[in-house]
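Sat 14:20. Reprocessing the chain from the morning session after the first attempt stalled halfway. Input below, unchanged.
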Amino acid sequence: MEPFCRLLTAPVELKFYGEFEITTNLKSVGGFSPEQLTLLESILGSQGAKLHLARMALETDLNSMTDSHFRDRYSGPSDRDLLDAVLPCLPPGQHFYWESLREGPGDCLHNEIMPVFFVFEVRLKKTGIEEIAT
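Finished this time. Tokens:
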């Protein structure tokens, strides 16, 4: 008979939650190119694109803030993920410019799209832990 078998218990199940607010910091657009401004206006004018980018911004922050419990659960978007998310909301005349960056040399796409992405800022409003009823 094992001496500790009487001490074994079922695991306790808890739910961790967080409430976040995603805002746009329009103070950072001062050096934006006309294409970047058009992209940002298109994102902000499309509820679907805005929500999608807000989620990506939150996942990027979670990726940078978390350690062992959340490691590999969240990752930030790639430049191509961002472009795929915003192309549908862009005016047709802008598609060629952004698509050409996708195939362009080096970090062209990254250097153009990331400043627009970083306009979205994440603020943690509230966290909590609740017991999960079994």
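Strands lie at 14-24, 120-131.
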